[in-house]
Specification:
The structure holds two protein chains of two kinds.
Chain A (H helix, E strand, L loop, with lengths): L47 H19 L7 H18 L6 E4 L5 H10 L31 E2 L6 H14 L6 E6 L6 H12 L5 E7 L2 E2 L2 E2 H4 L5 H7 L3 E6 L3 H12 L5 E6 L8 H4 L12 H8 L4
Parallel strand pairs in A: 1-2, 1-3, 3-4, 4-8, 7-8
Antiparallel strand pairs in A: 5-6
Helix pairs in contact in A: 1-2, 1-3, 2-3, 2-8, 4-5
Chain B lengths: L14 E4 L2 H12 L3 E5 L9 H6 L4 E3 L4 H13 L3 E7 H5 L3 H9 L5 E6 L16 H6 L5 E4 L3 H13 L4 E5 L4 E3 L13 E4 L6 E5 L3 H14 L4 E5 L2 E3 L3 H8 L4 E9 L4 H12 L5 E6 L9 H7 L4 H11 L18 E2 L3
Parallel strand pairs in B: 2-3, 2-4, 4-5, 5-7, 6-7, 10-11, 10-13, 13-14
Antiparallel strand pairs in B: 1-8, 1-15, 6-12, 9-11
Helix pairs in contact in B: 1-7, 3-5, 8-12, 9-10
């Protein structure tokens, strides 16, 4: 057992049928049938037009995933489409960097973006949320291509800090991206992780928060006061990049700057859950949208290529 | 198939004590295995991990007082290939971060060892510091190995055995002076409960874990002096429970007594009750432990006596379960000097 410490990483995604770039337990076995072949991998791009188109495809895929049952986390896909497009097509080095999905409800965006990057089989998306599917509606240990996840909110940033710490200890060129949501800021553990990452100067850690201002009971601001979010992260010692979360160019610039800091960095993506939705769906509860019979067609029209 | 007395190298009282058996063993392991990392949340000296901190600073991380975060960091390090030992007091390792232990360690079956110091009523700190439900909580988690060892020799052996066990574990450890009940030839086995006393014609079987093992041995001596033959079984691993040895111990005796430094709800007593009930037709069972109550902030000897975790209560319980008439025999108090150990 003695010997050099590695960071436990298996072969790159696509080279072998592994669910995740990390080890860890019997559940992370191979859903080979949902992974795309290596030849399907799309090259990274920073072109704003390409990334905007990728975000549009993510939204369309999300509508198709939700349409059969009418149930799913469509609003989450709408608010995070650009963030995931930029992460999966421009920022994350697949097979090298770690992706932690803290709010498991956003896994719909992960699936759609992973398909866009050519990591996940496009046809498998049709099984989203169906009984027995690999593509569960809230992410689990079975979810392909994630280093870690949680459905119980507020836990992901700590796990990401552990992954980033492990990479730092062995000097690995491996970044950790933690996708989080603004509602999670209400969980105390997030701030435990914030203090720790700054204290340890975890340069390899970048968190991105989807600040869509929405939680189950309504607007976040109506439930409690999480603002000023940027000031809080600055006060905790993080490098803060606050951007329009639907502006792909601004997101690319923010993630690029975040890589160059000498400590943990956070991208605060200001978004709205109604982005890309037809007018009929923009009001009401966008946190958990029920897609009625006519709604899917209206959404498809709204998201048709310009 | 049966586990005989030969694997137990049981020493005669008065038992000596030692300090920092855990920290010493962990440091030795960490020197051999660079993938081992010791995590803590304050309480470094109290969890004996100052030894690792001072000798191998690159294999020690203090995350501060943040137990929920602690378990998340442990999960991240384990997912990246580290063998992670997590340290705090048992009450803090299992109550506040229960969800994090469940979802970030147990569910992914990561190679993380949660070490909870100050088990049960060994803490004078009152309900906030007394881990009387930690075994119950950890036992409820799928895939979690739950271990409560009896002495310093088992502590040392447990460190290595847990490191070799690829999966999540919970180990509860006495803090400070730790008794030495077993000699160097002792063989702790995570899959086996171990016979410590056995005549072949026993009246009662006492199944004990952790700090109550020494208590059970002394109780067996007192019972023997009054003509009652008692089997004593050391059950260091409460989950997965060595079902075969439990059933073997229960067969042929007229009563079974469990003894644990923990609530009678959800710990060793419950685990044994489940096995005996499923098997059916066994002897009556009596459980010694904290009787579904919160305790006070007082000294451990006072608490152990007050809550019936003492030798005399084990004797009286066995006596009563066997339906013996008259007063149970007295358990002699053993005078101990500094550096010696005797259960109350």
């Amino acid at each position: 057992m003695a010997g050099r410490v590695t960071d436990g990483t298996n072969a790159a995604i696509g080279d072998v049928a592994v669910a995740s770039p990390v080890g860890g337990g019997v559940w992370r076995t191979a859903p080979a049938e949902v992974l795309a072949p290596l030849a399907a991998r799309r090259p990274p791009t920073s072109d704003p037009g390409e990334l905007a188109a990728a975000a549009r495809r993510i939204r369309r895929r999300a509508v198709e995933m939700v349409a059969p049952s009418g149930l799913g986390y469509l609003g989450q896909a709408m608010s995070s489409a650009e963030v995931f497009a930029v992460l999966y097509r421009a920022v994350v080095r697949h097979g090298t960097d770690y992706v932690v999905l803290s709010p498991g409800h956003y896994v719909i965006s992960h699936y759609a973006a992973a398909a866009d990057a050519g990591l996940l089989d496009e046809a498998a998306l049709a099984t989203y949320g169906t009984d027995g599917s690999w593509l569960e509606s809230i992410s689990t240990e079975r979810t392909p291509l994630l280093a870690a996840t949680c459905g119980a909110l507020g836990q992901g940033l700590s796990v990401a800090a552990g992954l980033a710490l492990a990479a730092t200890l062995v000097g690995a060129d491996r970044r950790t991206y933690a996708f989080c949501s603004d509602g999670e800021l209400e969980e105390g553990q997030v701030w435990e992780a914030a203090m720790f990452a700054a204290h340890r100067q975890l340069t390899g850690l970048t968190a991105v928060f989807d600040c869509n201002g929405s939680q189950v009971d309504g607007p976040v601001a109506s439930v409690t006061t999480v603002e000023p979010i940027a000031d809080k992260w600055r006060a905790f010692g993080w490098d803060v990049h606050e951007v329009d979360g639907h502006d792909v160019g601004a997101l690319v610039a923010a993630f690029t700057a975040a890589r160059r800091t000498g400590g943990p960095s956070v991208v605060l993506a200001r978004t709205t859950m109604s982005r890309g939705l037809p007018p009929s769906l923009r009001s009401g509860d966008t946190h958990f949208i029920t897609l009625g019979p006519g709604d899917a067609d209206a959404a498809r029209r709204e998201l048709a290529a310009p | 198939m049966t586990n005989d007395l030969r694997s137990a190298d049981l020493l005669e009282p008065p038992w000596t004590t030692t300090t920092k058996p855990y920290g010493t063993a962990l440091l030795e392991l960490a020197r051999e295995r660079p993938e081992v990392i010791a995590l803590g949340a304050d309480l470094t000296r109290q969890t004996e991990t100052d030894l690792v901190r001072d000798a191998l600073p690159d294999q020690f991380v203090n995350v501060g007082m943040s137990e929920q975060h602690l378990m998340g960091v442990a999960g991240g390090l384990a997912r990246a290939g580290r063998c992670v030992f997590v340290h705090t007091f048992g009450a803090f390792a299992t109550r506040r971060p229960f969800e994090q232990v469940a979802l970030q360690l147990a569910y992914p079956r990561l190679n993380v060892k949660v070490i909870g110091f100050m088990p049960g009523l060994s803490s004078p700190g009152g309900p906030s510091h007394q881990a009387v439900d930690d075994v119950a909580l950890m036992r409820a988690l799928p895939g979690m190995l739950v271990c409560d060892v009896a002495d310093a020799t088992e502590v040392r052996q447990a460190v290595r055995l847990l490191a070799d066990h690829d999966g999540p574990c919970y180990l509860r450890l006495k803090r400070g002076e730790v008794p030495v009940l077993f000699g160097p030839a002792h063989g702790l086995d995570l899959a086996r409960a171990q016979w410590l006393r056995r005549s072949g014609a026993d009246d009662v079987a006492i199944l004990a874990s952790g700090m109550l093992v020494a208590t059970a041995l002394r109780a067996a001596d007192a019972l023997a002096a009054a003509g009652v033959a008692a089997t004593v079984v050391n059950v260091p691993v409460v989950k997965p429970l060595d079902r075969a040895t439990v059933l073997e111990a229960a067969s042929g005796v007229r009563a079974v007594v469990t003894a644990e430094n923990h609530s009678v709800v959800g710990g060793l007593g419950s685990a044994v009750a489940e096995v005996l009930a499923e098997e059916g037709g066994g002897p009556p069972l009596r459980r010694i432990g904290v009787l579904d109550t919160f305790a006070r902030a007082s000294s451990a000897p006072w608490l152990f006596r007050h809550h019936g975790l003492d030798v005399q209560t084990v004797v009286a319980t066995a006596w009563g379960a066997l339906g013996r008439p008259g007063t149970p025999p007295p358990a002699d108090d053993v005078a101990v000097e500094t550096g010696q150990y005797a259960p109350v």
